[in-house]
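Write out the bound-state structure for pyridoxal-5'-phosphate.
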Amino acid sequence: MKNSISRRDWFKSTLALTAGMTITPALVNSLMAAPVSDAERAYFGLSKLNGAKVRLNSNENPYGPSEKAKKAVVQSLTMGNRYAFNEMEELKKLVAAKEGVDPSFILFGAGSGELLCQTGIAYGLEGGRVLSAYPTFPLLMNYAQMMNAAWDKVDLNEKLEFDYEKLLSAINTDTRLVFSCNPNNPTGTVVNIDTVKSFSEEASKKTLVYADEAYIEFLEPAQQKSMVSLVESVPNLIVSKTFSKIYGLAGLRVGYIVAHPDVLKKVGMYGDTISVSQTAIAAAKASLGDEDFMKMTREKNAVARKVLTDYLERKKIFYSKSVTNVLLFPAPMDGKTILSKLEERGYLIRVWDYQEKEWCRVSIGTVDEMKGFVKAFDEVTA
Ligand SMILES: Cc1ncc(COP(=O)(O)O)c(C=O)c1O
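---
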């Protein structure tokens, strides 16, 4: 099967890593939330994945962590000998106040990715099916498949947006969970909040809804209307957020989900009680609600994104109308060549397979990085 990874591959690749062996396609699968194209499978088996490269392949924030976060991390080191039980509770209270829910509705993980994995395990073990639009961030569905579930996918609409009407009608009696990602990765597109809200209300009557909001803070503050407002009245809903994107803490690993305590109990069973480190908690606390840093990131990201979209317009290449730090467009030549020639010039991107075609997924770096990328991409595809 093209987009799946087996548990055997996972363990084999983990062993290969610890034994210092070469990078295999299976290892790449496990490292990168599963490659989503044949081009990546073929290419990353050969790539060294190191060196001074411009990383436009993981939707990271090139401006983070903030100065406040860095200072807090240094200060937190003196507590590095202590489990962070108290600090975790403090962060939980701050996040609960920000989200307007009781702290019992919050569960933290080492990145929201850990919680996506745990949710995939918890619901995948029940068998049945998990449902999402595709392409989207596949981690939860990959884990559900590794357990016992099948993954049903519906296409995006012609504008490369999540099609919530189609998604709702694809729910059947075997659907254990439906995954919504708004704004979506790899497209960066956002769907009107009222549409997602009524979808979540309707779908949650039939199955669990997982609303991934990893990129919500890229929207202007007045538009950041989270599904969290539904959580207390809708017991069948999980909303996830992360400090990895707008806050620029991807390498420190902290994210959380908001859901009814019974749901958190079920998901929490498959993780450690405390997987978030003192340093990550300190950085998250210092970053939470740092409007200046978020505003700076949003503004610089929009300018840098325009460098890329202006280029795509000039070349008449169709692209997803991203509001975040990633966008998707059809690969103008074969994906493996694009990956290798760009890497030779110092740029890393991703290639995804969708509808029998290859697509370039490019994260937004700084303005200078995007100018350099556009030049390199133009040479490679000339
Ligand atoms: C939609 C989405 N959700 C979740 C994640 C996981 O991020 P993290 O584990 O760093 O919180 C990502 C990472 O790229 C993502 O794109």
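---
Residues 1-31 form one domain.
The chain is about 40% helix and 15% strand.
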